[in-house]
């Protein structure tokens, strides 16, 4: 890894006269930020001395925010995904199930280059034979002879011993956290060969959570319905990686409050699954030149069972936010997933938090920066403060008052290096 030498060669950068949203609040309307050695060195309300050779960036009429984080994506082995994400200001993505080898390959690229988003991964999820997500991949993935080979290498967790082995192996392979799957397929209209799709018994799910915690790893779970959410919260997970698509009830609200679990809404994928909210994406896709990419982003999966809806998800997130539950921005986007687009889906997601769930723009921005850093224990990013990585986004206008300003990104830095693209 040559990162340190790249960082040392870079001249200091001073961003001047800029409004600073540090991930929690607006700390200055006209501030100065010094970036050196890949980190934020100094934040000041007053002009800082400069030296010849420094990069000076005029931040007038603009706002500096921490690099955005998408807390639910699937990178697979698509370099293009992390290249595209950073162009929308997304400097870190949390990969919620991937082949260990693919993740390692992508992580290596992210360690060597600053013009792609960084990745932290769940590695392989805690899967069970014929369960999620093999069941949906067999229904939706393009015919691919390698799919069955991939699936045959996934965990089949059946008891405490396989749970322990899985967590140890996955951690050794580079996983930063553990992802559980509590999905029986009942909310989806796909013709699964068995209904319900197999899920691990609850005591086994609990064993996975306990093993993760013994290894100082977070445990998060996929769940789409109230029952699955309750089961996972009772199993002790730290967070749920989707909002549910049925009307919320009191037990779910109390369970979130009692367990202090967070939730990652993934409206981006729900909008596609239920075939809704195409117009927001149309705005975000307005200047997309590539026709195939545009069609993919504007398309809809239409796989949600009648009676389930993203409207339920909006209501759920509105209520949970009011109840003080941490909402972490995540989209479930991956390169070929219809209705999603790397990075752009984060802007879609945040727009919906503000316009459908009553978030202030500041609450929405915090959900994609400081909140994720705090809950995923990333002490090196997500907040603009001295000593953290200089993963920064310069936005024209004021996104702390109008979330639409996020469409006007004029600069992105990762590890203190400004990202340049065509
Ligand atoms: Zn996912």
Describe the structure.
It is a single chain. With 422 residues, the chain is an alpha/beta fold. The chain has 2 domains: 1-66 and 384-422, Urease, subunit C, domain 1 (Roll); 68-380, Alpha-Beta Barrel (TIM Barrel), CATH 3.20.20.140. The chain contains 16 helices and 16 strands. It has helices at 3-9, 79-87, 100-112, 134-140, 146-152, 160-172, 202-214, 226-234, 250-259, 267-274, 278-284, 291-298, 310-322, 344-357, 361-367, 370-375; strands at residues 13-21, 26-36, 39-44, 55-58, 62-66, 68-74, 90-95, 118-121, 178-181, 219-222, 239-240, 262-263, 333-334, 392-396, 409-414, 417-418. The strands form 3 sheets. Strands 1, 2, 3, 4, 5, 14, 15 and 16 form an 8-stranded mixed sheet that branches. Strands 8-7-6-13 form a 4-stranded parallel sheet. It has a 4-stranded parallel sheet with strand order 9-10-11-12. Helix 3 links the parallel strand 7 (90-95) and strand 8 (118-121). Helix 6 packs parallel to helix 7 (202-214), helix 8 (226-234) packs parallel to helix 9 and helix 13 packs across helix 14 (344-357). The two termini are 26 Å apart. Bound molecules: zinc ion. The site of zinc ion has 4 residues, from strand 6. Zinc ion binds at residues 72, 74, 96, 332.
